[in-house]
Sequence to fold (580 residues):
Amino acid sequence: MKHRVRFINRVVYIIILLWSALILSSGVIYVYNNYDYADSLAEHEALVSVKKDLAYRSWVASHGGVYVPITQRTPPNPYLSHIKNRDVYTTVGQHLTLMNPAYTLSQMMKDYTELYGTKGHITSRILMNPKNKPDSWEEKVLEYAEITKESSSKKEFIDGEEYYRYLRPLVIQPSCLKCHASQGYRVGDIRGGVSVSIPMKEYNEKAFINSLLNVSIIIFIYLLGLAVIFYGRKKAKEILENKIKDYEQHIFSLVNIIEKRDSYTAGHTQRVAKYSVLIAKEMGFNNEKIDDLYRACMLHDIGKISTPDSILLKPGKLNALEYEIIKEHVVVSYELLRDVDIYKDIAEIVRHHHEHYDGSGYPQGLKGDAIPIMSQIMTVADAFDAMTTNRIYKARKDIDTAILELKELSGKQFHSEIVKSAAIALKDVEIETDITQRPKTKIEKERFSYFYRDQVTDSYNKGYLEFVLAYNDTDEFNTNCMYGVFLHNFNQYNKKYGWAEGDKLLKKIAIFLNSIGEIDYLFRINGDDFVILNKEHFELSSYIAKLEEELIDTNVTVSYKYFDIKESNIVSIKDVEKIF
Fold:
């Protein structure tokens, strides 16, 4: 699940990055466009202003200049004193002075600046009026215009305030020579230029307000998008978690079914998971690691689904071949889990939970730190559960004894640091004392006795007699009476009729004995002898007499002995063999 969640988080992270980049770029574009639009408006105003100025200049030039009354605002132009008729008197005695296009335009620009803040300037590199001296920018533009005849524009600060500046070169027309021929100009030369500087403050303020509004809307859209992304992430995680929960529910149900194949292993995985989590917490692992360990413990025996019942449910000690077969369950568990996407992270933990610290474990014989630490924790927890649970021929240990045994195996079978933590974490756990490998229900008893059935007679074998005598003092058995039923001359019968016929006769005798209503348990021992165990005493002689009648043509005879189990202190098969 973790890597699925990590994948979702990565996807969400990428989406957030893309969404953020999109919104940021949109914001930058909007802000840029707002200020670019402000520049466009300023440029438009500059062009309109210059065109207006040039239109007025053209009109004045087309008339060779205009005569205006001499006033304080319109004194005679000292730079036109070389013109004979600069000043004239009208018939009514009015005193007029000639205003050439440049002088007229400069006067108008002065008024326009006072009214609107727009700075207009007529400039020239060859001066007639010192006021027309170009500044550094105008100087460069005029120099450039003399070559290209092109206009130029630029934004720059003047006295701490930003302006949009525009200069359009003035080309000498024939009418211009009236005033400027003395300066050496010819038609077509660049006389100078009309420069205008538009204050950007108002435009920038509008651009700022628009940008603020745009950015506010973009931030709202961005936050709304983030909310949608995180909501989508939440829903995706919920769908994934529900899917995984459903899947794990099926898997855990399968594990539960596997456990129920054996009454002893029922609850084993939950106990191992519980003990492992306690140890891992004591060792300081984070919740993510502990969650991995818990899930690994819950599934560590899933491979036993491939183990035959004849081996998995066998109550006694396994032989070498059977042990090799049951060892395969860890490999099967690993192969099952590694191919399931949500269990890839825990497959290795499960694979190595039977490895020993000294390298004597399986399946790969890993040693020391080569064994995953979570696997080693599970190994200790698994062993602790086995020690504190009743087995067929081995009673459970108490907690102190179990921890002492873990310490004795520290550095050999178990990691010493894990054992130290286990000694602390498990010292106060509650052990379920009723957990046992012995069968409890009728079905469990029948399944359990399958391993103790005599293949010839279908009665119980000597192994089950050993088991019953070992636990005879429990309410489960508590038998008091033992009858030994002995067949005589049976070897001669086998020699005469063969082993197959002998087996048929043994089965016939077992069926007869089992048909006796008072019998609780019937065992076949030593080839042709039977043992009957009963809680209550009953008279067997009449049944034996009837059995002899059944065997009259076989030359096989029958005898029996009765023993009081408790008085004779019969507690094992060795005691039976002694009295028989």
Remarks:
- The mean pLDDT is 87.
- The two ends are 64 Å apart (CA to CA).
